[in-house]
Amino acid sequence: MTTTPPSPSPPRPGSSASSAATMTTTTTGAHHSQSQTSSPVSGPVQKPSPPPVDILPIPAAQTYAHVHPALLLALYALRFPSMMADPVSEMITQVPLLAVAQVVYVVTCLPAKGTIVTSTVTAAGEGGVEGTERRAVSGTHGPAGTGVVKSGKVGYRRKHHGHGKGDGIGSRLTAALLSLTLTFLLGTPVLAILLVLFGGPLTTHSPHTILCAMHMSLLSSTALIYVYGVDGAVWKEVYAFARPADAVWGGALGTGVGAWLGAIPIPLDWDRPWQAYPITILTGAYIGFAVGSLISRTPLLYGKRLSFTAPEEEQHEKSN
After folding, report:
1. Helical residues (DSSP H) of 183-310, grouped into ranges
2. Alpha-carbon gap, residue 247 to 42, rounded angstroms
3. Distance between CA 144 and CA 238 in Å, rounded?
4. CB of 80 within 8 A of CB of 70?
5. Cystine design at 106: which of 3, 43, 226, 238 (Cβ 3.0–4.6 Å)?
């Protein structure tokens, strides 16, 4: 008797195909999910705006930052009779004096662009506490204006100093001279055009306009270029009056506002020699620089920005 072995049962129709399809779908879905998770979100990274500029934390800088505006006003007042007698000759005489004074100011009191400034003092001795060191970056070197705080070593005494890496006297003096050059080459023509646009004579008094613009440029632009260089983002904020208040921006803004207010007495029918163009404009620029440099460092204004929008609109713009 011959026994026939049982034949294997045929596979269910579609079971193998459906299983393979399920595995393929699962694998594809897992791969898609993994690729979505691992792929970084790409988008434009907005560079943060540099923070307000602090005066260097050394006694000489802190003292001269208060003396400098008063010194400029005193020199200008001393030469004011000569200014009324011959404005062109006197402005030419004062240009090199003002340039030297501004170079001394920025080198002594302000951090040059890209320098690292150490600003705190701690001492740790026997049973002392670990010191800390605060470093601030001027301009846009790295994350703009980021302050870094890191622990010091026990038993190491740090002295209070205001100059850091890349901040030697030679590099600071070079940066100041470059700032002075850009001030003459770029700032003077721009301010001369603005003086004409705001009502200055176009076809006459050209030396008066150019020299007045040169003085205003030295007052307002030297420190800005020294600290921020030619960073486009910062200068957009300058043109939009959106910089936070500090000694640098306060002096520049005060120069412009003072010159604008100084133009008011010119058309008045008082027939005074000091009403001649551009004496009152230049006087207002000097006074505005001194006032702006000093009050913008006070706690009431330091770090604040001019706001041209309502708080609700500003909040809505930030949320978007």
Report:
1. 188-197, 206-228, 232-239, 247-262, 279-295
2. 38
3. 16
4. no
5. 226
pTM of the full structure: 0.71
pLDDT for the residue numbered 312: 58
The distance from CA 145 to its chain's CA centroid, rounded to whole angstroms, is: 9
- Side chain identity at 11, as an amino acid letter? P
Write the burial class of residue 53 (CB in 10 Å: 0-12 exposed, 13-18 middle, 19+ buried). Answer: buried
Distance CA 209, CA 196 (A): 8
Nearest to 237 by CA among 289, 308, 286: 308
Residues with Cβ within 8 Å of residue 178, at least 6 apart in sequence: 225
Q: Are strands 132-137 and 116-118 parallel, antiparallel or unpaired?
A: antiparallel
CB distance 76 to 101 below 8 Å: no
Q: What is the pLDDT of residues 157-214, one digit of tens each?
A: 444 444 444 568 889 999 999 999 999 999 999 999 999 999 999 999 999 999 999 9
HSE-up of residue 4 (Cα within 13 Å, Cβ side): 3
Return d(Cα 79, Cα 76) in angstroms, integer: 5
